[in-house]
Amino acid sequence: MESTIPDPRTELPTPPPAADRAGRIEAHGIDHIPDSERHGRPRDLFAVWAAPNVSYLNLVVGGTLVLIGLDLWQSLAVIVVGNLLWAGVGLLAVSGPAAGAPSEVIMRAMFGVRGNRVNIAVTGWLVSVCYLALNWAAASLAAFGLAERAGLTPGAPLKVLVIVLIAAATLAISVYGHATIVRLYGPFTLVLTAVFLLLTGYLLTGGHTDWHYRPADPLHGTALVAALAGGTALIASAPLSYSTSADFSRYLPRTTSPRAVAGWTALGAFVPSVLFTALGSLAATTLDMTDPQSALTAVLPGWFRPLFLLAIVLSAVANNAMTAYSSGLALQAVGLRIRRSRSVALDGALGVALTLYALLVSNFLDTVNNMLELMVALTGPVMAVYATDVLWRRNRYHGPALTDETPGSPHWYFHGVNRAGAAALVLGTAAATLCLSTQLFTGPLAHLAGDTDLSLPAGMLTAAATYWLLMPRRGTA
């Protein structure tokens, strides 16, 4: 293992094979990528992870921290601490080049062939579809604003058309797959960063930031601790939803530096997440971020408002293209025998249906948001088990063995279930649930702690310790 990230100037890219070339539909799904088809450079991962995190939703989350009662500097501290979990996403990504397989397959080593199907169905596929609906809803609201500026009345037919068009653009990128994502996300990152930096300039120089902001009734004692813990869990929910980072690193050559893979992945997500979530908190010091889109567009010059709204749409497309890509792999991993392109289309159709229902029929988005708060009790332990396995095996994974789903597979364990992984996930989720504090549910331990949400450390530490103790001291990948 190399001790430093390679100098990008000395990295020589390998040409992509026909099976994974930008502008062509990716041929591979959850099957093993042979060494002869490995290509690319770890620094390409920076843009892959930066584009979806130069995000309007980060602004919304940053504003939420101030709305729950934190002052500016408390909010900024929470943003940095919560986003440190992107280091975990980077650690999981190193398993991609080692195995030549996506995360949805690599996790068979942790949960067993059958046990992993249940894990992926819930923490992979279901969470992905919910995020598709959330992001498309945010993008659609921005697109409706553009339509109004163009003099169009966004009635139901136009809203349906807008949602379908945004989804179609997203799914096209996802269907074409890995190489197209890598090729497009560099320009996406540059465009989105330019727009959001302009927004930053207007907020910082236009008198719309109060660096000395404190709420009228500052939080103290238990209430402050609860807000800090809840805010950290809210920020951490984003990296926790990406236990699939090997999906985007598995085409890299087996000899690629693990430090480089982890570093470029984590850095690409961490930097924009911190900067633009912090921007949301800064905006909330003077603006009413209960309706962030209206509040922000109101203080922007007329010529810039359409660019800002278009950037919201583009950031949602970038975010959801990655999500749809992984959700398609998840459907294959749970046992659906269809091509990846068709599994992406199937998930996209469901995501569109949920988005239409959310925007045209009910308050579905509130329900999804509440459910995702509860899902931290599952996604945290899953990431902890995965990270512990990478360290336990010293990142030694055998791709062809991972693709073997027969009872003779080294990852069949006991009737298809790795009891160590299952126990770690169950106990970690139980510990997290006892410590949850959300609008829908407050666990007994959280209640005893003054409604402080400690689900994040409780779930992850319990899952990691259980897995480490129950796995044999020596094993094979």
From TrEMBL:
<feature type="transmembrane region" description="Helical">
    <location>
        <begin position="303"/>
        <end position="323"/>
    </location>
</feature>
<feature type="transmembrane region" description="Helical">
    <location>
        <begin position="344"/>
        <end position="365"/>
    </location>
</feature>
<dbReference type="Pfam" id="PF02133">
    <property type="entry name" value="Transp_cyt_pur"/>
</dbReference>
<feature type="transmembrane region" description="Helical">
    <location>
        <begin position="156"/>
        <end position="177"/>
    </location>
</feature>
<feature type="region of interest" description="Disordered">
    <location>
        <begin position="1"/>
        <end position="22"/>
    </location>
</feature>
<feature type="transmembrane region" description="Helical">
    <location>
        <begin position="454"/>
        <end position="471"/>
    </location>
</feature>
<dbReference type="InterPro" id="IPR001248">
    <property type="entry name" value="Pur-cyt_permease"/>
</dbReference>
<feature type="transmembrane region" description="Helical">
    <location>
        <begin position="184"/>
        <end position="204"/>
    </location>
</feature>
<feature type="transmembrane region" description="Helical">
    <location>
        <begin position="76"/>
        <end position="99"/>
    </location>
</feature>
<feature type="transmembrane region" description="Helical">
    <location>
        <begin position="120"/>
        <end position="144"/>
    </location>
</feature>
<dbReference type="GO" id="GO:0022857">
    <property type="term" value="F:transmembrane transporter activity"/>
</dbReference>
<keyword id="KW-0813">Transport</keyword>
<keyword id="KW-0472">Membrane</keyword>
<keyword id="KW-0812">Transmembrane</keyword>
<protein>
    <submittedName>
        <fullName>Nitrate reductase</fullName>
    </submittedName>
</protein>
<feature type="transmembrane region" description="Helical">
    <location>
        <begin position="371"/>
        <end position="392"/>
    </location>
</feature>
<dbReference type="InterPro" id="IPR026030">
    <property type="entry name" value="Pur-cyt_permease_Fcy2/21/22"/>
</dbReference>
<comment type="similarity">
    <text>Belongs to the purine-cytosine permease (2.A.39) family.</text>
</comment>
<keyword id="KW-1133">Transmembrane helix</keyword>
<feature type="transmembrane region" description="Helical">
    <location>
        <begin position="422"/>
        <end position="442"/>
    </location>
</feature>
<dbReference type="GO" id="GO:0005886">
    <property type="term" value="C:plasma membrane"/>
</dbReference>
<feature type="transmembrane region" description="Helical">
    <location>
        <begin position="261"/>
        <end position="283"/>
    </location>
</feature>
<feature type="transmembrane region" description="Helical">
    <location>
        <begin position="219"/>
        <end position="240"/>
    </location>
</feature>
<feature type="transmembrane region" description="Helical">
    <location>
        <begin position="46"/>
        <end position="70"/>
    </location>
</feature>
